[in-house]
Structures are given as C-alpha cells and as structure tokens.
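From the pipeline queue, job 12 of 40. The input is one protein chain; the requested action is below.

Action: predict structure.
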Amino acid sequence: MRLVVALGTCVLACSASGQGVPLSLDLLSSAEDLSFMLHADQVRLDRPVRLPGSSWISDEAAKAISRRVWENESGGTVEGLTFWGRGEGFASLGIGHFIWYPAGADRPFGESFTRLLAYFERRGVALPDWLRNNPTCPWPDRESFRRDLAGPRMKELRTLLHDTVDLQARFMANRLEAALPRLLRSAPPQRRALVRARFMALASQPEGLYALIDYVNFKGEGLYPQERYNNTGWGLLQVLDDMRGYPEGRTALREFSRSARRVLWQRVLNSPPERDEMRWVAGWRKRVKSYAGLRFKAPETAQTLASAGPNKT
C-alpha cells in the first residue's frame, strides 16, 4: 500500500486492486511515519521517522502552490528572485526568498539558500563554480548587492533560479513534509495531539496545504533557539500551538490565519527596537490574513495554477 496526496485529495492506493480509498487525515507515506502520526506520544522520538525519498505532496501540487508563494514574496517577477531587504543582514533569493548570509554576519535566522544549493547538486543541477561548496554570500551588505544587480554574477544567479523553479517548489514541499515529525518532537508531550490534529486538518485541504507551505517558508518551523525574541518563537509550531481547539475545514484555515496574525504581532512586540519590525506588520498581516479567504478550484487547481504561472517581467 502507499499513500498519495494530490492537491487537497488523499487516497490509499492498493497495488493489488489499483483502487483508491479516500482518507481524511492519514497523510504520510510509510508505515513508520503513520505509526508516529497516530501514536506520537508512545513511539521513540530520537530516531528518524521518514524514509528517504518518500513524499505525500504531489509535484503538481508543489508547483502550483510554489507559484503563489513566489507571488507573495516578489510579485512573481524574475527580478524579485534576487532581493535584499532594507535593514536586513542577508540576501533573500529564489521563489521562497531563501536566506543567504555573507561572511561574518550575525545569523539570527536559519539559513536556507545553502541548503537549496546542496539540493540542486543532489538533483544534478550544474552550478557555477562560485556557487559550489557551500559558499557564503559574496556581497557583504545590501548596498554592494544592489550596486551589482546588473552584474554578471547576479545575472547568472537569476538565470539559475529562474531555470530551477520546479526544483525550488519540490524543495519547499520537502521542507514541509520533513517538518511535522520535528514539530511533534519539539512540542510538549501533552500538546502533540493538538499540533498533529491541527496540521492534518490544514494539510487535508488544498488551501490549508498552501498556507502550511507558505508559512513554513515565510517564517520557518519555529524550532531553532536563535529564532526567538524574549524566548518566544514565531514559526509554524507556535502558530499551530496557538490555534484554538480541533478546527476542521475552513474553520481551520480561519483559525490558522488568526493565530498567525497574533504570533507575528507578538514577535514585533518582542523584537529589538533597532530592528524596526513595525514597518513589516501591514505586509505580514495582509499575507497571513489571506489564508482565511483562500478559495482554490478543485479538481483542476494544480493544472490551472501551474499553467498560468507567475509574471515573467
């Protein structure tokens, strides 16, 4: 048997019969994962629970959702694939604005671009010499980065990122797939059932799957000690934990949206004044508030979004 998730559809496919039986919550693709999900409080938490290469988010769903993420991050433009925000100490690259630090920079948030480069190499992408071997960002600050926007390295970087959009989509989907066992390990034992149920209620519908992928690539899993202000995080774990009750369907979307707004507002209140994070509040709130009103067209959602694609200018 194997579990298959299309965009918002989960079925148990039996190789003997070739028929699919609808499932509401069972989203994982291996017996060990399924055991962990159903009995998270009883199994050992010090061992991997995902088999290498297993996947429950289809490539079609990943591609469709990633294009909406690209729209959120940079308007779906090629120029937006290479970005450095005002007041930030790092470049934000690709459709998910993956973080890349220069040498010697403070690293308050987890770096993801070097992991993306390693993923490219594992998938056979030929990288330019200057991007091999886990490099640091060659531009030391925002000013030097912006001065070089029309330079040869920057053009080469944008070409690479534009040509690998589908791989970036898979990279983001893989991050969410790997997140759930880690979230459950990190959650207090008495909260694991709540976190698991809320995650699954979202992942079992296309709009919720989008919200999960978007948020985890937007603000992370919430597991790293350095991603805290006043010992309070703002990642996916904190948003799921802050939700109320066991919501299902569109109620789960609305509750996830509400919780994300509250968690991000708490981050801003806890942030160091010199970071001036209040300037981001309106954009952040608009982004996560949109989760509550998402309406995807099923069953053609993945094909429609993928064929439409983002703007190329």
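Job complete. The chain has three domains: 1-56, 62-183, 187-298.
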